[in-house]
Amino acid sequence: MELTVAITGASGTIYAHRTLQLLAESGVVETINLIMSGSALTVAQVEMGVNLKDAASHDINEWLGLEPESRLIRLWRLDNLAAKPSSGSNKQAGMIIVPCSMGTLGAIASGAGTNLIHRAADVCLKEGRKLVIVPRESPYNSIHLENMLRLSNAGARILPASPGFYHRPTTIGELVDHLCFRIMDQFDVPHSRRSQWTGEEVV
Ligand SMILES: Cc1cc2nc3c(=O)[nH]c(=O)nc-3n(C[C@H](O)[C@H](O)[C@H](O)COP(=O)(O)O)c2cc1C
Questions:
Q1: Within a domain: residue 159?
Q2: Which residues sit with their C-beta closer than 6 Å to ligand 1?
Q3: Which of 60, 104, 127, 163 is the most buried (most CB within 10 A)?
């Protein structure tokens, strides 16, 4: 499987980090086209203390704990509109935007995108491919909500960054995993299913 993952400047870099790790661990993903916005780099620095500015593939591999020589991640520049994910003729399973800022959400919803993240998402919608958007803002204003509805109507899957608690998480890692497992489920990517609800027996 080949897919595109975009990281934007909403809070929650940790979700992107774990999503990439789970895709890498799954054994079913051969190529991940990775795109990061400028603001994503700022938030990554603030939230995870990592400097991904001017990062090369091996720096991303190190950040994810992958082998330095791993070729799983293909890093694309945000302004490279000639990159692979910008063409519908390049067959891919789809795209995940995690976390997705309200700015990126609005640009895609308007159809007037300006960078590779916007274009790759637009391609998914026009080709009928899976586009999983993990928005994060609080509270949402009506423009954010209308943009989400618009994208949902256009075929995107809106998967908000709001993890459940029914698996009784005791660590941030378990909370993050809960959300990232739901992202994996959208592409039928196998994972441990540790937080899957199996039903409560009535006593
Ligand atoms: C530490 C930090 C946290 C932010 N958190 C959010 C957020 O949760 N949601 C959001 O929509 N924007 C958030 N922003 C603002 C976005 O980064 C900003 O709107 C940016 O222009 C988005 O650009 P992008 O969509 O190209 O990444 C945050 C910014 C910083 C510096």
A1: yes
A2: 8-11, 37, 39-40, 42-43, 46, 101-104, 136-137
A3: 104
Average pLDDT in the 153-176 region?
95
Q: Is the pLDDT of residue 17 over 60?
A: yes
Nearest to 191 by CA among 66, 18, 73, 25: 25
What's the pLDDT band for 107 if we cut at 50, 70, 90? very high
Mean of all residue pLDDT scores within the chain: 95
Question: Are the beta carbons of 38 and 50 closer than 8 angstroms?
Answer: no
Q: Is residue 180 part of a domain?
A: yes
Distance CA 150, CA 140 (A): 15
Tell how far the Cα of 94 is from the centroid of ligand 1, in angstroms.
23
